[in-house]
Amino acid sequence: PVVTLFLLPVFFLQMTKSVTNPEELGGLASQMTNDYGHLALQGRMAAATAEPEEIGFQIRTRVQELGHGCIFLVQKAGALQICPTDGYTKRELIECARAVTEKVSLVLSALQAGNKGTQACITAASAVSGIIADLDTTIMFATAGTLNTENDESFADHR
C-alpha cells in the first residue's frame, strides 16, 4: 500500500497544476481512481493482519476517509472541466487536493503504527545476527589458540 500512497500525491500535484489545463484532469482522475482501488484492496489486507485490532480499525477508517476525499477531488475536477474559467472551482480543487494529501499522510501513519511489531522483529533478528557473528569470531580466535588462558586449559577442553 505504501507504494500506491506515494503515487497518489503525485496525481494530486498534477491535478493542482492541471488547473490551467483542465482537459488533462479526466485522465488524472481516472488514474487516481485506479490507484485508490489498489490501495483500498491492499489496505483491507493490511487492516485484517494488523495487531492490535484497533490499528486495523484505524487503517480501515483512514483509507475510507481518503476514499471520500478522492471522490470530492474527482467531482471538483469534473466541475472544472465543465467550466474551466471558474476561479472558485479552481480554488476548491486545490483545497481538495491539499485535504487528500493530508489524508494520505494519516493513512501512512496508521500503516506505520501497524508495522511496529514487524520492525521490532527485524531489529531483534539483526541484534541476534550480530551476537552470532561475535560468537563465531570468538570461536575462530579461540580455536586458533589466541584466546587461551595462561594455564594449561584449552578452548577444546571447554568447547
From TrEMBL:
Localization annotation: Cytoplasm
GO BP, one annotated term: cell-cell adhesion
GO cellular component term of the entry, any: cytoplasm
InterPro entries membership: Alpha-catenin/vinculin-like_sf, Vinculin-bd_dom
Keywords associated with the record: Cytoplasm, Signal
Domain Vinculin-binding site-containing: 15-116
Domain of life: Eukaryota
An example molecular function term from Gene Ontology annotations: integrin binding
Signal peptide, first to last residue: 1-18
Pfam families attached to this UniProt entry: VBS (PF08913)
Keyword tRNA-binding: no
Name under which the protein is recorded: TLN2 protein
